Fold these 4 entries.
Entry 1:
Amino acid sequence: MPVTLPDNLPAIEILKKENIFVMTQLRAKEQDIRPLKVLILNLMPIKIAAETDLVRLLSNTPLQIEVDFLKLSTHQSKNTPIEHMETFYKEFNDVRNSNYDGLIVTGAPVELMEFEEVTYWPEVSAVFDWARNHVTSTFYICWAAQAALYNAYGVPKHLMDEKTFGVFKHTINDRSFPLFRGFDDEFYAPHSRHTEIRREDVEKYADLEILAESDEAGIYIVVGRGGREFYVTGHSEYALYTLHNEYVRDLEKDLPISIPKHYYKHDDPSLKPISRWTGHGNLLFNNWINYFLYQETPFDLSQIKELANLTPTRE
């Protein structure tokens, strides 16, 4: 089944060229089923690229998903046309009284700042708080994972001596957890960050469990409230050339940056990157959608608040 998107969203034509099935809202209205409703708070600077990456993964499921995009009223994107934001994005006040099956919050280029120093921190933390009673399960990515852990639990982030940048091997700590059904013993995922969360800080909270990690990249996935929140420090949604584009961008800005690890063939930036994480990324999102949205969410979204203090089943 396809992902239902706003009419004329640029991602529609991009994904159609990749033979990925997407559906406009007009056609979706003709189908007599209840789609899953997923809200995406897109904090990435290049909005259209992030939209396309996430929709590509959401579309690889037999379930129909209706996607809304959310922007912050206290922050204006400098890299995406205003017309695009006004046409396809809602503000928090537009959805504050609504409920969603899922919420995805992307990373943001503000990780070197303290959380409270980020200009939109009050609004984004309000979204985090709202999600706990209005969303069945939330998927926090990279900076958002660190920010949400800090907002809910006070887990700090720590500046690293060197940026974690590349594609890294990971292992699973709890193979019985439904998020990992179908996974191999080892899998790869991209990371691109200057900061980290540490085991000793996470383990202080019985409500949190470290599900997957890497010897090189550290903690990868933490789960909260049995599946109501997932904190993912890497970028399983990245397209093949995203790390390359970040690498070239930083070189052009004369920023200190190393060649992304385990990414290019023979570690040579002149050669094509090796796709090591695409299968993992698709399976990760599919499992999240199936086991923590579709099988847990109430048919009547107004009942989500009743799930707030419940732990999802693990069958």
Note: The radius of gyration is 19 Å.
Entry 2:
Amino acid sequence: MDMRKGIVVHSLVLNMVGALLVLAGVGLAATTARGLLNYRMAASRHGGEVTSLGSDMLPQAGQYGYMVRLVGTPTVVEAPRDPEFNLRVNTPVLLRHVEMFQWREVRIGDAVHYEMDWVDRPLDASRFEEPAGHANPASFPISGKQFDAGLVQMGGFKLDPVLLHALPGSQQVAPDTKSLPENLAASFTLYRNHLVTSAHPDDPRLGDLRVSWDEVPLQQLTIVGRVSGDRILAAADAADGKGYDVELGDVPLLDMFPDLPVPPEFVMSRQILAVLLAALGAFLLLCAQHRQRDVLLALGLGGLAVGIVACVMWIGADWPATCGWLAVTLIGFSLTAWRLRRRR
């Protein structure tokens, strides 16, 4: 009686542990798939799942249309040039600022007063409350402009103008008076990194011009964008309306897009472990019910159970993954059918 009772208890324990292991295997496969699906769904809002290229930042076959993450310092191949002032700078973007010394109206509460200052746009004095004695020139003889580099690369990829305009940072450029055209050299003098038309720079007069330049510095950046041949550009179909990101320094992807969930790690290892756990559980169930230690049958049952669940979860979301799990399911089914036929 005691021996029979012990056998019953042993069988019950094997059944419980086996069932738990099968559930653990199926659950591990399901949570891994769910984690990947949630991550891809969130990533699709920014253009799609992002692949970090690391130091291998070269165009390769099969990359077209994929989102990638690049880390490095851009290289200016064709530097921008301001043709009017004959100024060329090794920068992705060169900005020319033009200001004129003008009257401007200042209101503090109900009080109105007028002062002269450098302003980067023409001020229409006719709109002043007291226009008499505060007339400004009608227009600027020279306007501010932006000059983009002809070619900027990150590794082997060319950066699209949208990404160039998103590069962070700005620093002033000291102009070279020796390179000025003769007509401008006669009109402008260098004063505190500005070119000014003032006869006395410390005491400017109405209508005097002040010209300066800013450049985007070359520094380490992290860029996320879509591959199109040998170019990196914005993903036009991204739901966030942007489809790219540019950050200063080496920034992790999850810091660039805080709304992304943390994707599961060691995906392949987790999937293999899921099948092995389910197979071990099936083996214990077979031992408890049939007193048979058929490893191949257990492996087939484990693959079948995990494969069916994973295959259903991936249907319509990722056809390569669906086909992979379908193959696991078919192999598990074939192995199970073969072992059962052998037993008969």
Note: The longest strand covers residues 93-108.
Entry 3:
Amino acid sequence: MHPSTCLLRLNGTFIEDQNSCQTDHCEGKSKKFIVPLVISIVAAVALVTLLSVLIIFLRKKWRKQTEVVNSTASNNEELLKSKNRPFTYSEIATITANFNTEIGGGGFGKVFLGHLNDGTPVAVKLLSSSSKQGYKEFQAEAQSLMIVHHKNLVSLIGYCKEDDHMALVYEFMANGNLRQHLSETKETVLNWKQRLQIAVDAAQGLDYLHNGCKPPIVHRDLKPSNILLTEQMQAKIADFGLSRFFSTENASHILTSCPAGTLGYVDPEFHASCNLNKKIDVYSFGIILFELITGQPVIIRSTECNIHITEWVRPMIEKGDIRMIVDPRLENEFDVNAAWKAVEIAMSCALQASKQRPDMSHVLAELKECLGRNDQRVLTETNSWEMDPDMLPVAR
């Protein structure tokens, strides 16, 4: 008998029922197969549905973000068009109220206060007519400087080149320049922390010009009057790259007809070799740092003779008394270790041989450490005062 054959008893006799047996067996196997299949199909449909919903959601989100980015880019482009653009000479005259308020000046020309149409204050520098460049060259240089942006660089927002008239439009700096704040006639005196912070700010701007711009930009006329201060006393470097507007056909021409620094701040090696490089600015920065530390001008004048600040400070450094070096107007309110560190940095920057001077990236790192030492000293003194019972006020 076949193993799958079923026996039925009919009138006392057993007979084979193959159909009955096969149906029951197949139904059992079919059920075992169909249930997992249905579950798999439902799971697959659910997964496909979920993925479709997710893709639709992500597409909508991406589309919205793209619209926002495009809108922002469009707005920024409109803003740039409204500010970073050439001005006509008549517009320059209107902005400055016919050159009514002079706020500064130097080797490149006079500076006037101006206001854009939206009321934004600006500084308008009228350049002298000594440039040999044509309009296209001037325009290319100005536009290249307008894309140089850093928090410690004064922003150039426009320019004018019309016939013999040349002008640059800068952001306005409310607190003037560093030279004004270091002047003996200034009633308010910069404290030690402010001086260190100004040095760090200026170093950051210079480091960006040297190491963040391709090709590097050498300032060539760094001095306190070219370090401007915002309303919050943040320092920004001005007039960077300005010498590039003027003809530099050869080195002798640079020294004679093209501004290449200010007396006292010019690298002595550059005078001898005319080798234009980044270390020129490092030397100038060292001199400025000495001025911040000592409060003395770069050329100290007396009835007997005029002496450079490095010659004035050198014998005092040899004596080892930092209080003879630091600006007496601070009334000894400074950290001695931070002051010596600042003097060491200034000395290294002002070395005669340019190869021995550090890169601005190194100078910046050292100044930040110097500022950190000063802050730590202030914090330590504050904590010791708060925790010392003898220093606490006595209740009466």
Note: The two ends are 119 Å apart (CA to CA).
Entry 4:
Amino acid sequence: MTADESLQLHYPTIFADFPTLAAAQSTRYGGVSQPPYDSLNLGLHTEDDREAVLENRKRFFAACGFRPDQTAGSHQVHGAEVLKVDAAGYFTGYDALITDQTGILLTVTVADCTPILLYDPVRRAMAAVHAGWKGTVSRIVVRALDAMREHYGTEPADCRAYIGTCIDHCDFEVDADVADHFTDTHKHWDEAKGKFLVNLKQTNRDHLQQAGLPGQQIECSPYSTFSRHRDFFSHRFEKGKTGRMLAAIGLRS
């Protein structure tokens, strides 16, 4: 993967009926970063060359139809706090962002954790959610929906959701200290591996449906960051020495 490869993004089809809505998740392809961050590393808090990261982010934002100064993101803490965003900027301590403002691109950073994008076409409100295993257990995606209801009047039944590429259940091997936080529906014991396997995608999907989203209004990425590490950054596979992807959503002006 080199700097001359074209930018490759994943565009959720669940939002295809809304032409002014930008929604995408990045891959490894199309940036200028050198190994082991090759090539489209978008993570501000990595040891990659900062100028390369800023160039990569500029390319990604442009592909979404936004400038860097029209974006909102947060230094995530694997928590469950939700921030109502009224202006572009970079914040700290939040793992979910919501807005109903046109011209702001909400972003979350991932490299195995689950990105979730939400859109309410009735109220024209949206959310970008970072759900690691701790955020998933804390039902952060439901907290984001609750915040959208509180601030914008969102009804979950009106929403569309995209559960993006993350580490899949066949790759997410954990011990009991993590598995004990999940129900039997969302984990199983693998005797050969001597580990529990936890399904983050299905857990978040079930949380969305329990909150009132119809199943046909939820799209789930079929890919795993771990098994497809040549296409996506995987913190676990690459033992922490890797880049980061962005998932983003926003209404273009």
Note: The chain has a mean pLDDT of 96.
